[in-house]
Write a structure and sequence with these properties.
It is built from 14 helices and twelve strands. The chain is globular and about 50 Å long. Helix content is 38%, strand content 13%. Helix 5 packs parallel to helix 6 and helix 12 runs antiparallel to helix 14. The protein has an eight-stranded parallel β-barrel with strand order 3-4-5-6-7-8-9-10, surrounded by seven helices. Strands 1-2 form a two-stranded antiparallel sheet. A two-stranded parallel ribbon has the order 11-12. Keywords: Amino-acid biosynthesis, Diaminopimelate biosynthesis, Lyase, Lysine biosynthesis, Schiff base. It holds the Pfam family DHDPS.
Length: 365
């Protein structure tokens, strides 16, 4: 009990009476006061960073104005590690051809196949190499609120300009749970909420988005349920990006979308810039429609990974469970490139069909 009282006195910053080694049972007063470490009693802030300490802090409005955002592909070496040289070339081509932002580690970039260490490293690498030329939006969403908070803390700490957050998938929650989940991450910086029910199994209803729109850090919504929902939001002043390449032209020019978060812009960024910047362009949209349909014949990013390998801009390496498109679809892609024009696609090598044996499938990485 005496020890507990002494410890309590110590916490109050009062002087302690300690046994004297020369005075038997007598006590002497210490000259110096010991204080409890201040860091241990800091209230429950989001650590290790706070909003005013974020590297490369950017305004929410600068995110809201982006019209062409590419969900960038992550290329691999034959052993399954990131091919950063090829990745840097891909991002550079996006910058040169007019993309304004990249989503790092999204579905297209196979964030679902990355460890969080890989994920945050790639975000930091993108910021350090390209952050002055293009907005870097890190996919730090998760079906675990704890993981989403931690990943967002780390992503903003390494300099990402905004976060992309999906609603909890598989272990779905209630509408109130969605509000609590998004509120937990919105406090950390500019955020895009991503609604794609075909992947999550749960639609984010407008009522949740309206609630989130009251938060200053909501940059907008990546919406994949169609143009009617996009119009519903834009009519209320909420920024929306189409998440569907085959609908984005009409989303932009007929339904008020700010732009698109695009997969196909990995292949033809210059043409997608024309589609988003140049006013209504139905003939170009129609020209690209067969490529868009081909690209999503199988779940994304299977088509994109196959196409970029055929264009020679990435190695034909797949992290499982993704596998390349079959031979007949690869031949179809070669014909599509010729019809649209090789000069509009990324890279400068001739498009190839590639043999089945050219592809490397990696199961442990």
């Amino acid at each position: 009990m005496a020890t507990l009282k002494s410890y309590s006195a110590c916490l109050r910053g009062t002087a302690l009476l300690l046994p004297s080694p020369t005075s038997g049972d007598r006590y002497t007063r210490r000259n110096a006061k010991w204080r409890f470490p201040q860091a241990a009693v800091i209230p429950d802030f989001h650590l290790p960073m706070r909003s005013y300490e974020v590297k490369n802090r950017t305004s929410v409005d600068s995110i809201k104005s982006l019209r062409l955002i590419t969900a960038i592909k992550t290329p691999y070496l034959p052993d399954g590690r990131f091919d950063l040289e090829a990745y840097d070339d891909l991002v550079t081509m996006q910058i040169v051809q007019g993309a304004e932002g990249v989503i790092v580690g999204g579905t297209t970039g196979e964030g679902q196949l990355m460890s969080w260490d890989e994920h945050i490293m790639l975000i930091g690498h993108t910021v350090n190499c390209f952050g002055a030329s293009i907005k870097v939006i890190g996919n730090t969403g998760s079906n675990s609120t704890r993981e989403a908070i931690r990943a967002s803390e780390q992503g903003f700490a390494v300099g990402m300009h905004a976060a992309l957050h999906i609603n909890p998938y598989y272990g779905k929650t209630s509408m109130k749970g969605l509000v609590q989940h998004f509120n937990s991450v919105l406090s950390m910086g500019p955020t895009i909420i991503y609604n794609v029910p075909t992947r999550t199994g749960q639609d984010i209803p407008p009522e949740v988005i309206y609630s989130m729109a009251e938060n200053f850090n909501l940059a907008g919504v990546k919406e994949c349920t169609g143009n009617d929902r996009i119009k519903q939001y834009t009519s209320k002043g909420i920024v929306v990006w189409s998440g569907n390449d085959d609908e984005c032209h009409d989303s932009r020019w007929n339904y008020g979308a700010t732009g698109v978060i695009s997969v196909i812009s990995n292949l033809v960024p210059g043409l997608m810039r024309e589609l988003m910047f140049g006013g209504k362009y139905p003939s170009l949209n129609s020209k690209l429609m067969p490529l868009m349909k081909w690209l999503f014949h199988e779940p994304n990013p299977i088509g994109l990974n196959t196409a970029l390998a055929q264009l020679g801009v990435v190695r034909p390496v797949f992290r499982l469970p993704y596998v390349p498109l079959p031979l007949e679809k690869r031949i179809e892609f070669v014909n599509l490139v010729k019809e649209i024009g090789r000069e509009y696609f990324v890279g400068d090598k001739d498009v190839q069909v590639l043999a089945d044996d050219d592809f490397v499938l990696v199961s442990r990485y």
